[in-house]
Amino acid sequence: MFSAFSANSSTRAATIAWAAVFFVLAVAATLARGPWDTPLLIDNQHYFYMAERAASGVSPHDAHFDPKTTLSLLISAAAIKTGRLLGIGTDLDAARAISVVFAGLSASLVWLCAWLLTRSRIAAHSAAITIIGTPLFLSMALMGARPKVFMVPFLVAPVIATVKRRPFWSGFFSACAFLCWQPALLVIAGAVAALLLRPRTALRNLVLLSAGAVVPVLAYEGYYWAHGGLAEQLEQSFYFPSTYMTHPARSSEWWLHAKWIFGWGSAPRVRSVYANGFVLVLALALGNAVSRPRYVLKYLRENPGWCHVLVVAPAALLFTLHDYQGFPDGFILTPWIALAWGAATAALAHSARAKAVRPAVRAALVALVVAAAALPTVFTLGPHLRGGLDRQYALASEVEQYFQQGKRVYVVGCTHLLGYLRRANHVRYGFFFRGTAAYLRTKTNSPDGYRPLDEEGRMPDVILVSRGFVPDGQPWLEVEYQQRESRSFAAQGIAVYERVVPARYWGEPPLSGEPPDVST
């Protein structure tokens, strides 16, 4: 698929060399953020735990309840297992290493995609630098196992396959994007649109596209079937989000999401500048398509890669405006933002035809490369985060003491501590997000809150809660448990609850609100 970039071998070598340069720059920019002492933050804690469990032989959805597809976690698990076999580093080191590689692939493939679409190196440089110059993307890549980081190269690869007229690979990589995060399935719509522009070969190519998509899906589902977790995977990845996480489109929410994404009403940031530039370029492209439909249709037939982009980019924007829960959701826009900036740069370079202007264009090219080389030292995590990883490892050692005492530990919101220890959670519900409480009420037929009973019907001895768990919604917590003061846990935002009800009451229905009579 990625061979034969050009009939000219020197051009092909230069193309490969530039893609490799930006791979190295992206890796360097990510590593500059300190992977060896940066703690796991927010949802990355859960993803690492799930990847570690998969590396230990437990399928991700059996280990932890999460609505996303988990290809990124299986890739991370493979890296962790490789690290264990080779005896290199910790599990977290291995998970972060493969994540950093995918950050490098994001910049490299975006460079290649922009080059194939525009045949302008300065445009390709601009697109790749947009990836490297997105600090939050690199920060999440540094954390390790983040699904939407792994998704980005899989979003770009189908466009490259469309340009090279390889429908099988376009379907294959589109399915891989979907298996990292379900909304990424929209990338296949661009491939289908590009194929339909050539009706004579459309049927054959659609069959190849479908065959390519089926291969990774069958392998993925085969993994869960082999591990006995197929039913749980289907329920968590498809039934739960389609039933409990849906919400109607509201103009007020779209407006609020737009303000967050584009930074309207706040000080300009790198990502908001990129996002606003993307919308401007997209609006100009769509406006041109409406005003000159015949010319644009002919152009897209000859350049199917741009057809792919022009279908997926606005669809990704509309989805993000509808369902935006935090900046990682914006990563589905990241490659299209980068390609938009590359296209804008190509247009500017194309307009600079006069000989007097060409030196300025070359100077801009050099400036872009120098800027990319400087980015690793400019965009780093804040100093207040450095060294926090050691504190997390130290806290995990305290959790291990509970296990050594034979106690059952239930962790909510801070599952990374179990991941460091290679320990399983008491139950799979290690985080409560939108729809989880309603789902559990339906599943357990309990209006009084979910009771974390293990397979033997026993409650945990200790509950550690950092976020995603509302004590008010669990009336048994205040009755059966007592909060323990702990400076070390409190310093990392974790509350500790220890059980005070005797063991003889484990597994009983929720209490009415009064302590049980244990005098007999």
Number of strands: 4
Strand order of the largest sheet: 1-2-4-3
Number of helices: 23
Helix-strand makeup class: mainly alpha
Low-confidence stretches: 376-384, 509-520
Q: Residue-averaged pLDDT, rounded?
A: 86
Q: Write the H/E string, N to C.
A: HHHHHHHHHHHHHHHHHHHEHHEHEHE
Gyration radius over CA = 25 Å
Major sheet characteristics: 4 strands, mixed
Question: What do you see in this structure?
Answer:
A 4-stranded mixed β-sheet has the order 1-2-4-3. Helix 5 runs antiparallel to helix 7 (135-143), helix 8 (147-163) runs antiparallel to helix 9 and helix 10 runs antiparallel to helix 16. It is globular. It is built from 23 helices and 4 strands. Mean pLDDT is 86; it is low at 376-384 and 509-520. The protein has helices spanning 9-31, 44-55, 60-63, 71-86, 91-118, 121-132, 135-143, 147-163, 167-180, 187-196, 199-226, 230-244, 251-262, 270-291, 293-302, 304-322, 334-351, 358-378, 388-404, 416-421, 436-444, 475-480, 487-490; strands at residues 409-412, 462-465, 481-484, 495-499. By secondary structure, it is mainly alpha-helical.
